[in-house]
């Protein structure tokens, strides 16, 4: 790929990640959100994208916790990844059927597309981690 295309993709990832992190700050969930963003890439590398997103999905729907900051942060993280992979990413877009969850679609993908989705998610999370870490520090100052 030409360097300008790669740079443009990184710019789009960074721009969307910044918006997501800014929104988490406005929703007063940044410390939890940032912690989960930091942990998720290793979880994806260890367990696979489908399993890691299933974990986030379960945490965001935890019936034992009413609407805790933890649950809100997991919900926001899942929604941000879903929006990136279904609407915002210039490289790859998943089309979800009506009422279909992101994880349903991901686990049904062929091996090559699954790997592409994993790489794209990790690239997005890399930017999200940078911005969320910076915004947590800003809040703490």
Approximate shape: globular
The mean pLDDT is 89
Q: How does the major sheet shape up? A: none
Strand content: under 5%
**Number of DSSP helical runs:** 6
Helix and strand run? HHHHHH
Give the oligomer, counting copies of the same chain as homo and different chains as hetero.
single chain
Q: What is Rg?
A: 15 Å
Distance between the termini: 41 Å
Question: Which structural class fits the helix and strand makeup?
Answer: mainly alpha
Uncertain ranges: none
Task: Count the beta strands.
Answer: 0
Helix content: over 70%
Note the main attributes of this structure.
mainly alpha; 0% strand; 6 helices; single chain; 141 residues
In short:
The protein has helices at residues 3-26, 30-47, 49-60, 69-88, 102-107, 111-140. With 141 residues, it is mainly alpha-helical.
Structure, explained:
The structure is a single chain. Helix 1 runs antiparallel to helix 4, helix 2 (30-47) runs antiparallel to helix 6 and helix 3 (49-60) crosses helix 4 (69-88). The model has no long low-confidence stretch (mean pLDDT 89). The chain contains six helices and no strands. The chain is mainly alpha-helical. Helix content is 78%, strand content 0%. The protein starts with a helix and ends with a helix.
Q: Topology, pairings included?
A:
Blueprint: H1 3-26, H2 30-47, H3 49-60, H4 69-88, H5 102-107, H6 111-140
């Amino acid at each position: 790929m030409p360097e300008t295309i790669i740079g443009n993709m990184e710019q789009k990832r960074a721009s969307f990640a910044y918006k997501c992190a800014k929104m988490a700050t406005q929703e007063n969930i940044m410390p939890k959100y940032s912690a989960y963003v930091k942990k998720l890439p290793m979880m994806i590398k260890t367990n696979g994208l489908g399993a890691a997103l299933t974990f986030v999905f379960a945490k965001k729907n935890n019936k034992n916790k009413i609407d805790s900051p933890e649950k809100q942060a997991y919900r926001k993280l899942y929604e941000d990844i879903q929006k990136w992979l279904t609407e915002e990413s210039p490289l790859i877009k998943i089309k979800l059927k009506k009422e279909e969850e992101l994880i349903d679609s991901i686990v049904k993908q062929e091996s090559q597309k699954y790997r592409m989705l994993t790489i794209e998610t990790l690239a997005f999370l890399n930017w999200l981690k940078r911005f969320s870490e910076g915004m947590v520090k800003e809040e703490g100052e």
